[in-house]
Write a structure and sequence with these properties.
Layout: E1 4-9, E2 12-20, E3 26-28, H1 33-37, E4 57-60, E5 65-68, E6 71-72, H2 73-79, H3 82-91, H4 97-109, H5 115-123, H6 130-144, H7 154-179, H8 193-202, H9 213-226, H10 233-242, H11 248-260, H12 267-281, H13 285-293, H14 314-330, H15 335-348, H16 351-355, H17 362-372, H18 380-401
Antiparallel strand pairs: 1-2, 2-3, 4-5, 5-6
The structure holds carboxymethyl coenzyme *A.
The site of carboxymethyl coenzyme *A (CMC) has 14 residues, from loops.
Length: 427
C-alpha cells in the first residue's frame, strides 16, 4: 500500500500523505490541503473524518470488536473492575496492585461533596432533569477544587480524575434523592465503587440497608462496558472543549450535555419508554414487531441495531447473561420486563431482523438491568455518563499529551453574497 495518495485539483496533481493505524486502517492526511491548494474537504456529520490520532480504543464494527488499549472488552468484562478499567483507559496500562489500591482509595476519599455543594440541590426543581444537574454540578465542583486548574503533571491529573470519578456518583445519587425530598447520603469510603453508588441511591440513611453484591457487580459491568467508545459525539465534544485549554471538569461537563441528547445517550431510556408504550396500549408483541417491520409505520424497535456494529454489539453479548441472571435472581414482577423478554425472543427469531443483522444492543440489556434494580428511567443517561467518564478523562489527557492545536473546523459558506445594509424605514 502506498504512503501517498494523488489528487488532481484544477488540473494540477497533488500528493497527500496516507496514514496507517496499528490495525491497518488507512487515512488520507489532508491537514495541509488548504495551505497548498486553497481547497478544504466537506464531510457533513464527520462520518468520514478522522479528527485525531488516538491510542485509547479500537473498534471494528463489521467484526464486532471493541478493545480498550488493545485488550478485548470480553477479557475486561470477565476479569476487570470499573476502576481498574478506568486506570487502563486513562493511563494506557493495567495498574499494579499498589497503583490500583492507591487510585481506588483516592477516588472513594474524594467522592464526598463539600457541604456548600449539597445546598445547590435544594434549589433545583424536583422535576429538573438529572443530566442538567450533573453537568451543572460537575462545573460547580470545579469552583471548590481550584487546585485542579494548577498544572498538568501526572499527580495532578490523577487527583483530578479521582475527584471527578468519585464525585459524579455522589452528585447523581444526591440529585435523585433531593428530587424526592429524601436525605442526601455522603459516600462511605469503605465500600466499593458501585456498592457506594447503590448505598447512596437507595439506603436513605437506613443502617440496616445492605447492598446486594450481585447487583453492584452488574452495575460495575455496565460501567466497564461504557468506559470508552472512541470518537462519538460526547467524546469529540470533550476533546473540542479541551482543545481550548479548558480544565478537565469544564470539558467533561460539556461531554454530559452532548451525551444527554436522545440520539446519543438517550437510547437506553428510549427502550424503556417503548416498553411502557407497548404495555399501555395493550398491543401484542407480535403486532408490535409487525409495526417495526413496516417502513410506513415510523416505528423502530428501540435497543436493536447499531450504527457501528453491523453484525453484533460485543457489549450486548456480554451483558445479556448478566441481565438474565439479575432478572432471575430478583424475581421482579414487572410487566415491562416481561414484554422486553418476549420482544427479544420474537425479534431474534424473525427473518426481518436476522437478515439485517439487527440484534439487541448494549442499551437494550443495560436498560433492562437498570429497570430491574430500581434506577429510574430519567437517570439512565446519568449512569451512561458515569461509565463514560474514564474515556472522557483519557481523551482530555491524550489531547493535552499530544499538545494538540485548538480544534477549529472550517465550513463552506452558502449564505447571501455581499450586500448593503438597509435603513429601517426602507425595509
Ligand atoms: N427496528 C426496525 N428496523 C430497523 C431498526 C430497528 N431498530 N434498525 C434498523 N432497521 C432497518 C432499517 O429500516 C433498514 O431497513 P432496510 O434495509 O429495509 O431499509 C435496515 O434495518 C438498516 O438500517 P439503517 O437505518 O441503515 O441502520 P443505521 O446504521 O442507519 O441505524 C440505528 C442504526 C442504531 C440508528 C438503528 O438501528 C436504530 O434506529 N435503532 C434503534 C435505536 C437504538 O437502539 N439506538 C441505540 C444504538 S446504540 C447507541 C450507542 O452505542 O451509543
Amino acid at each position: 500500500m502506498t504512503d501517498k495518495a494523488k489528487l488532481e485539483l484544477n488540473g494540477k496533481p497533488i500528493e497527500v500523505p496516507v496514514i496507517v493505524g496499528t490495525e491497518d486502517e488507512h487515512a488520507i492526511d489532508i491537514s495541509e490541503l488548504r495551505a497548498k491548494t486553497g481547497f478544504i474537504t466537506l464531510d457533513d456529520g464527520y462520518g468520514n473524518t478522522g479528527s485525531c490520532k488516538s491510542a485509547i480504543t479500537y473498534i471494528d464494527g463489521e467484526k464486532g470488536i471493541l478493545r480498550y488499549r488493545g485488550i478485548p472488552i470480553e477479557q475486561l468484562a470477565a476479569k476487570s473492575s470499573f476502576l481498574e478499567t478506568a486506570w487502563l483507559v486513562i493511563w494506557g496500562e493495567l495498574p499494579t496492585r499498589a497503583q490500583l489500591d492507591g487510585f481506588t482509595a483516592l477516588v472513594l476519599e474524594n467522592a464526598r461533596l463539600h457541604e456548600n455543594l449539597l445546598r445547590h440541590f435544594e434549589s433545583f426543581p424536583a422535576n429538573g432533569h438529572p443530566m442538567a444537574e450533573l453537568s451543572a454540578m460537575i462545573n460547580t465542583v470545579s469552583c471548590y477544587e481550584l487546585d485542579i486548574m494548577n498544572g498538568e503533571d501526572a499527580k495532578n491529573i490523577e487527583s483530578a480524575a479521582a475527584r471527578l470519578l468519585g464525585k459524579v456518583c455522589t452528585i447523581a445519587a444526591a440529585s435523585y434523592n433531593a428530587a424526592q425530598g429524601k436525605p442526601i447520603i455522603q459516600p462511605d469510603p469503605a465500600l466499593g465503587y458501585a456498592d457506594n453508588f447503590l448505598q447512596m441511591m437507595f439506603s436513605q440513611g437506613r443502617k440496616d440497608y445492605r447492598v446486594d453484591h450481585e447487583v453492584a457487580a452488574a452495575l460495575d459491568l455496565i460501567f466497564v462496558l461504557h468506559a470508552d467508545h472512541e470518537q462519538n459525539c460526547s467524546t469529540s465534544t470533550v476533546r473540542m472543549v479541551a482543545s481550548s485549554g479548558a480544565n478537565l471538569f469544564a470539558s467533561c461537563a460539556a461531554g454530559v450535555c452532548a451525551l444527554w441528547g436522545p440520539l446519543h445517550g438517550g437510547a437506553n431510556a428510549a427502550v424503556l419508554d417503548q416498553l411502557e408504550s407497548i404495555h399501555k396500549s395493550g398491543v401484542t408483541v407480535k403486532d408490535y414487531i409487525a409495526r417495526a417491520k413496516d417502513k410506513t409505520s415510523g416505528v423502530r424497535l428501540m435497543g436493536f441495531g447499531h450504527r457501528v456494529y453491523k453484525n453484533y454489539d460485543p457489549r450486548a453479548k456480554i451483558i445479556k447473561a448478566t441481565a438474565d441472571r439479575i432478572l432471575d435472581k430478583l424475581h421482579i414482577n414487572d410487566p415491562l420486563l416481561d414484554i422486553a423478554r418476549e420482544l427479544e425472543a420474537a425479534a431474534l427469531a424473525d427473518s426481518y431482523f436476522k437478515d439485517r443483522s439487527l440484534y439487541p444492543n448494549v442499551d437494550f440489556y443495560s436498560g433492562i438491568i437498570m429497570r430491574a434494580i430500581g434506577i429510574p428511567v430519567n437517570m439512565f443517561t446519568v449512569m451512561f455518563a458515569i461509565g463514560r467518564m474514564p474515556g472522557w478523562i483519557a481523551h482530555w489527557k491524550e489531547l493535552h499529551d499530544q499538545k494538540s492545536r485548538i480544534y477549529r473546523p472550517r465550513q463552506v459558506y452558502i449564505g447571501k453574497p455581499i450586500r448593503d445594509y438597509v435603513a429601517m424605514e426602507s425595509r
